[in-house]
Design goal:
CATH class of the largest domain: Alpha Beta
Number of helices: 13
Keywords: Transferase
Structural class: alpha/beta
CATH architecture of the largest domain: 3-Layer(aba) Sandwich
Oligomer: single chain
Strand order of the largest sheet: 3-2-1-4-5-6-7
CATH superfamily of the largest domain: Glycogen Phosphorylase B
Mean pLDDT: 92
InterPro entries: Glyco_trans_1 (IPR001296), Glyco_trans_4-like_N (IPR028098)
Organism: Skermanella aerolata
GO molecular function: glycosyltransferase activity
Helix content: 25-40%
Protein name: Glycosyl transferase
Number of strands: 13
Length: 364
Amino acid sequence: MKIAQIAPLSESVPPRLYGGTERIVSYLTEELVRQGHDVTLFASADSLTSATLVPGRFRATRLDPACPDPTASTMLMLDRVRRMADDFDILHFHMDCVQFPLFRHLADRTLTTLHGRLDLPDLYPFYHEFDDMPVVSISNSQRRPVPDANWAGTIYHGVPAALYRPSTEPGDYLAFLGRISPEKQPDEAIRIALRAGLPLKLAAKVDRADADYFHDRIRPLLDHPLIDLIGEIGDKDKSGFLGGAKALLFPINWPEPFGMVMIEAMAAGTPVIAYRCGSVEEVVEHGITGFIVDSQDEAVAAVGRIGELDRRKIRARFMERFSAERMALDYVDLYRKAAEGRLHALPAIPDRSGWSNGAAGKAT
């Protein structure tokens, strides 16, 4: 198939350091090329790909202090995609909803993967209005707040199997990987590690928006000898970091749409201890690939049970459920259905998030 992948311009594809969406775009693009498809990637010029690269900007915007707002470059890139649209069987967007008004007349040849949270009041009327634009969720949980969206499927993220070296022996520290932000609760991870009496290594970045949270809530906790903030790391360092850990702590308190770090840990054979929020119950298999907990006490107890889990089985379950190959095959199935006019909206999932959108979802 002739496939266009359209990425955000905030990060390169793949990102140099942090960047979940662009990382998935890269994994999917490279696997589609490996499977023999003709793929064109619309992304920043500093991206690296085996597909045909059509640059939308000379450099990703997050690391460019001269461009605090990517809107102008994004709209220029989308106009180029629109002018080239007839060259492709499918246009696959990873930019949430900004392209909907421009591509509504081509709705039956588009697919949009929604990578972010959807439990925000302004999103409900938007997806209600654009209910002809096919969208893909990255977990069933993500879909609940916007039942009127035209859900074509749920496809879980995947990562290349060779990217992580599985470790069969647990390490002597706990790991936290991601962002220093209130919804990720690194302060909770610190408290869990201290109560368990184990070192905690935090491989995390601090966004400008979270600077106050870091200085007020996290910095005072970093003086303890068991706590080590090592900073932001890229793909080449993740395998050793995760594989060398006893477990990954994932004590979130928000409706996580997916949670890439959970499957990255599983790829390294490392179990996950996660709070029951968002997608966690769809990703972690309790008692097999980790433990799902509801409190700090339960998390501390789960640390003591890590020895019950088989790291080889964790890696095997990753291979079955979360490889890049599986992800690409699932997307190709949707691409073919779209090309043949066989996409059908999925039934709505009742919202259990506690937020009311103020309107009933339509029957599907």
